[in-house]
Amino acid sequence: MNQNLIKTFQERGYFNQCTDLDNLNKLLNNKKIKLYIGFDCTAPSLHVGSLVQIMCLRLFQNFGHTPIVLLGGGTTMVGDPSGKEESRKILTSAEIKKNTSGIKKVFNKFLNNKGNNKFIFLNNEKWLTKINYINFLRDYGKHFTINKMLTLIA
Predict the structure, then answer these.
(1) CA 122 → CA 6, 23, 28, 58, 96, distances in Å?
(2) What does the pLDDT read at residue 39?
């Protein structure tokens, strides 16, 4: 493709800086990659704050790359205080499945589901439930926030 993906990203304000721009350009122009963005299934649809990420996936796909939409069906089961003092309400499996279905509809509108680089849906529930990680995180993870863990000195 004669147009440069990084240049297009820069023109649209999606790209700020890179440690090795030349090699990134070479990679994206000479090889088709897979890339992912993850979304927790805490609501029946995505909000406008997710639009930039969705448009980035679409742009990569338009340049021949394969986007992966990673749905957090498993991590949604855990809940996350997101820096707040109180925990997020734990959703039922039925609520999470309903939310997952609604979120999938968003991607079916914005991404191409045909051809060699059709987008891929993955749901981390599929592998997290197999290793009983959800129960561990529900029992112990609720006592720690990501923000708190990031501020601890190693």
Answers:
(1) 26, 29, 23, 17, 14
(2) 94
Residue ranges and CATH numbers for the domains of the chain are 1-31 (no CATH), 34-151 (3.40.50.620)
Contact 131, 81 (CB under 8 A): no
Is the pTM value of this prediction over 0.85?
no
Cβ-based neighbour number of residue 77 at 10 Å:
23
> Which pair of tokens denotes residue 13?
């304000």
Buried b (16+ CB within 10 A) or exposed e, 107-144: beeebeeeeebebeeebbbeebeeeebbeebeeebeee
pLDDT in tens, 80-109: 655 555 666 788 989 999 999 999 999 999
Contacts of 140 (CB under 8 A, 6+ apart): none
Range 26-32 average pLDDT: 92
Count CA atoms within 13 Å of residue 117 on its CB side. 17
CA distances in angstroms from 100 to 44, 80, 123, listed in the order given: 7, 17, 9
